[in-house]
Design goal:
Blueprint (H helix, E strand, L loop, with lengths): L4 H10 L4 H7 L2 H20 L6 H4 L4 H19 L11 H10 L2 H20 L5 H15 L12
Helix pairs in contact: 1-2, 3-6, 5-6, 5-7, 7-8
Length: about 160
């Protein structure tokens, strides 16, 4: 494989150090989808339009893509704390952008909501994926408005 070391490390970390799963992630359709998510997230941070992520997330593999998004948000929280061991070292500039753009409490609220959304997609039979994702994206956009009261975290 002729990918940068950071990409290989990222794939291993996102796949819980399982080499076969990491190799599958690095294949063309999946790795390209992850790169598109990262690019779309960077554009979203610049524009503030979280609904622009809908075409990337609304896919048969939405749960996987939400897992990637959650890992990026958690990595940004780590960067805010000065931690350099992250799951996504291949997109370091994006992690820094997230860490500097979003306050810690808002990152935590969105990350928690991403995980909740992922669980609903995996466990609720017949859920309308597009509607659920649209509602969540609008909620995350609302979380970033000044004066918005965030949900109480039980972490």
């Amino acid at each position: 494989m002729s990918l940068p070391q950071e990409s290989l490390l990222t794939a291993l970390r996102l796949c819980a150090s399982a080499p076969a799963a990491a190799l599958e992630l690095l294949q063309e359709p999946l790795w390209t989808a992850r790169q598109q998510l990262c690019q779309a997230l960077a554009a979203t941070l610049a524009s503030g339009d979280w609904l622009a992520l809908l075409p990337i997330l609304n896919h048969e593999q939405a749960a996987v893509r939400l897992h990637w998004l959650a890992s990026l948000l958690v990595d940004a929280q780590k960067r805010q704390q000065g931690i350099t061991l992250v799951s996504n070292p291949d997109v370091w500039p994006l992690l820094e952008q997230l860490a500097h753009s979003l306050p810690a409490v808002r990152l935590q609220a969105i990350a928690h909501d991403v995980c909740t959304c992922r669980e609903q997609l995996l466990n609720v039979v017949g859920v309308n994926r597009e509607l659920l994702l649209t509602e969540r994206l609008l909620r995350w956009e609302h979380y970033l408005q000044p004066g918005t009261v965030l949900p109480v975290s039980h972490l």
